[in-house]
Fold this sequence. Notes:
The chain is an alpha/beta fold and 276 residues long. Helices cover 38% and strands 20% of the residues. It has helices spanning 8-15, 39-48, 64-73, 86-94, 110-117, 142-153, 177-188, 201-210, 224-234, 248-253, 266-273; strands at residues 20-23, 30-31, 34-35, 53-57, 83-85, 103-107, 123-124, 131-134, 157-160, 166-169, 172-175, 193-194, 217-221, 237-241, 260-262. The two termini are 26 Å apart.
Amino acid sequence: xxxxxxxxxxxxxxxxxxxxxxxxxxxxxxxxxxxxxxxxxxxxxxxxxxxxxxxxxxxxxxxxxxxxxxxxxxxxxxxxxxxxxxxxxxxxxxxxxxxxxxxxxxxxxxxxxxxxxxxxxxxxxxxxxxxxxxxxxxxxxxxxxxxxxxxxxxxxxxxxxxxxxxxxxxxxxxxxxxxxxxxxxxxxxxxxxxxxxxxxxxxxxxxxxxxxxxxxxxxxxxxxxxxxxxxxxxxxxxxxxxxxxxxxxxxxxxxxxxxxxxxxxxxxxxxxxxxx
Length: 276
């Protein structure tokens, strides 16, 4: 199982013990501003069967409320407490490790700045920062890279929300947060601590929120190197959907193997509707 699309009988066997889901967003629920097939049906079916889920995204560019609004524009209804972004997970990770008032420099969008600075725990800084946090930044400039590099060369810790090399959109695959990680690492010789998938920090936080052990939860995603690898590392059932970044050809060539492969969300909807 895992190298080709999973047949219905084996899919049913794999999902029999699953009591909750951690679901990636980009490439699973939507591409850019376009909803992918069967999204609302799938989420509604999970609700019908009292199966809790967390939408866990490596993307740090929007707040949970903004994601709720984005999904609503596509006809998909979710509550903000269902959404865990890498920006929020990064803030949660940082606080036990740095004292209140630590100067921090953020390379990222306003949602990441809000997550890091919003409650006043960290103090905005520039080259004197003691921690640099990076995410995908659509307004990236050389000056931002320069300030981050000076802080890192001055001894600041480096934490990245995620290291995704690409971002799936309607236009195709665009540079992701990992492209900024690559630039800063090349300039400063400092490797970041990465919070998002395939690191297990986001998944462990999601499991805590679900109240489930890893063995009772499934990780649903479209990327082998983040969603599936992270889920495998966390000990979860991994379900790969072919609506995002990776294809069956990628899977055949990869050492990372999901437990289940589905073309889109329809087989999952069919499985749950069949056990009403």
